[in-house]
């Protein structure tokens, strides 16, 4: 097959397509265990989100929003599976993008799997949760990228997490914090709303970690109470469960997709 794809698109396997979207400060590599579990029965389309992994950088930062991400992903879909339905998997920021894709093309989605999507814009303006999300974004959007990375990673893990990392990993994360701030820009400017989630009719698997921040738990409850055909699983994990507890979480996702 001769196709013209953006950089950072990794395709393997054969069968019904599964599109994988990773979290901020990560890359398509986080889904490699799931790729191994499904590539014998499914076509795995594992995507580096803009600014991460092997993908290109954001060109027009001033006007960056989730439409920029979904337009790029839609180009991949049009090139690889233009007339096919597909499974969609997203974690954190990738989960928010996945929700947007599902809202905009609900008839194309065979199943939707979300691990704690950070669709913070779904919190009502003025609510305590929205204020917390806005404050979090402000604390991350600072010039000191090492302090920014400390705030961001400690929030999703635990206090002292960033300090405990090897220096090479600290340098790597700090270098990507500018894109993390752009991710927040995209999240907070998004326009699909809570009622739009009711248009998603496919079977949906909502995953979360028992030890994740309260903000994640609040958002998962909001989404679960709005969407249809939802199954929920909570793991003995945190927000970064798909990376840190892949042996628990990836098989659960694979089993769900195989049954569709």
- Helical run tally: 11
The top level CATH class name? Alpha Beta
Straight-line distance between termini? 27 Å
Instruction: Please provide the count of β strands.
Output: 7
Mean pLDDT across every amino acid position: 96
- Tell me roughly what share of residues is in helical segments: 40-55%
CATH architecture designation: 3-Layer(aba) Sandwich
Which strand order does the major sheet show? 1-3-2-4-5-6-7
Tell me the Rg in angstroms.
Answer: 17 Å
Supply the number of structural domains.
1
In terms of DSSP E residues, the strand content is 15-25%
User: How does the major sheet shape up?
Assistant: 7 strands, mixed
CATH H-tier superfamily: Alpha/Beta hydrolase fold, catalytic domain
Topology-level CATH name: Rossmann fold
Are there runs of 5+ residues with pLDDT below 50, and where? none
Could you give the order of the helices and strands?
Answer: EEHEHEHEHHHHHEHEHH
């Amino acid at each position: 097959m001769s196709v013209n794809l953006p950089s950072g698109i990794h395709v393997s396997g054969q069968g019904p397509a599964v599109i994988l979207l990773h979290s901020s400060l990560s890359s398509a590599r986080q889904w490699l265990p799931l790729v191994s579990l499904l590539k014998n029965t499914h076509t795995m389309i594992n995507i580096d989100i803009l600014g991460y992994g092997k993908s290109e950088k954001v060109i027009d930062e001033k006007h960056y929003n989730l439409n920029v991400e979904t337009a790029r992903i839609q180009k991949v879909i049009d090139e690889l599976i233009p007339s096919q339905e597909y499974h969609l998997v997203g974690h954190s920021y990738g989960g928010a993008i996945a929700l947007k894709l599902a809202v905009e093309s609900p008839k194309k989605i065979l199943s939707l799997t979300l691990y704690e999507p950070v669709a913070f814009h779904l919190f009502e303006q003025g609510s305590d949760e929205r204020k917390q999300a806005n404050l979090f974004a402000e604390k991350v959007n600072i010039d000191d990228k090492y302090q920014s990375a400390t705030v961001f990673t400690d929030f999703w893990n635990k206090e002292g997490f960033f300090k405990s990392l090897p220096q090479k990993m600290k340098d790597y994360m700090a270098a990507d914090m500018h894109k993390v701030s752009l991710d927040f820009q995209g999240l907070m400017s998004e326009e699909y709303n809570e009622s739009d989630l009711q248009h998603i009719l496919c079977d949906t698997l909502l995953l979360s970690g028992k030890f994740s921040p309260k903000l994640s738990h609040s958002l998962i409850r909001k989404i679960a109470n709005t969407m249809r055909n939802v199954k929920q699983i909570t793991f003995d994990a945190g927000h970064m469960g798909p990376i840190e507890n892949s042996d628990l979480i990836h098989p659960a996702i694979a089993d769900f997709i195989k049954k569709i």
